[in-house]
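I can't quite decide. Please look over this sequence plus structure tokens:

:::
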Amino acid sequence: MRAGRAIALAIATIAAASGIRSGSAGAEPVVAPDLDCSVGFDALHNQLSWLPGAQRESVEGRDVVTVANPDVWRVEIRFTQSGEPAHPAVTLRKFVKQVTGVWTAQSKACGYGDRAQFDALMAALKVEDTRLTNASRDDVERQKRERSPLSPMP
């Protein structure tokens, strides 16, 4: 009975920390989930898989959990697999839509293995964040140039 209560408490804690609206249709999260690195790799893996509205899939051999508040933010959480550099590690990339229409990418991660490999992983995440943000900015600018001056604003 204790294990069941512990799981229920963990799910309630995650929902509260994630800003899940209780009683709302579809339990759409209002704030993006975050990582608490202090709980460890396995606990994060278990907790984040239970987020209301989360979609879990395998992408390029990695376990990925995606949670979104459409047209506001989207979070992709990836778990490294055995044999990957920096394993075990959890990465969280949050995309936030700005008032300009540009989606900015922001990453953070928890590393529980080799520090040098984790540092390299973080550097790669930051480079990819910049690339993704710049690509979104370029797309918004291209759409502005292509729009007729007489067309209504989106």
Notes: Confidence is low (pLDDT under 50) at residues 1-25. Helices lie at 2-18, 41-49, 115-146.
